[in-house]
Amino acid sequence: MKIDFPKISPALSSRNFHDIFYEEDPILEMCTIIDSAFENKAVDRVRLYNAVIKNCKFTNTDFSNIDITDVCFENCDLSNVNLSKSSVHRVEFKNCKLVGVNFAESSVGNVMFEDSVLNLAGFGNSKLEKVIFKEASLNSTDFYDCKLKKVEFQKCILDGANFEQTSLKGIDISSSAFDTLTISIESLKGCKVSSYQAIQFASLMGLIIKD
Question: Is the overall model pTM greater than 0.85, yes or no?
């Protein structure tokens, strides 16, 4: 599956998240933000466009209602960040820590999570379209009541992930690994799995498999 990657200008100025902390209309665009810390803060309705963000820490910050478009996050820590009710489009997360991040009730499109840790993250009631999770850790990640369209899990760890009320029709999880998943039989219809996973699901359903 092809996704649209961030469209980032070659001419970017250096900025800092603290520049917008007291602004009434917080917006950062056409910029690079490197080696910055913006933790335990709360800024509503931030707009972040056309940016490269590297080696930054945002732990426990409230960015609810944020609009992120054409942005690359690299080596960033967004653990326990509130991104609920956000719009995230044409965005890359490379080697990022997103433990416990809250994406609830968000629109996520053309997004790549690569070599990133999303354990305990929450996507509940969100719409994900053209999203790739590549070699990502998704232990106990919550996808409750999500709409998934053209979503790929490539060599991910999905142990304990929750897909209740979420259809996996057309979704390929065959290259990913898990011991348990929270999911209904109805939601599994049309999901692409490996033969080993099929045996796992049969076991989780209580079937006794004989050689």
Answer: yes
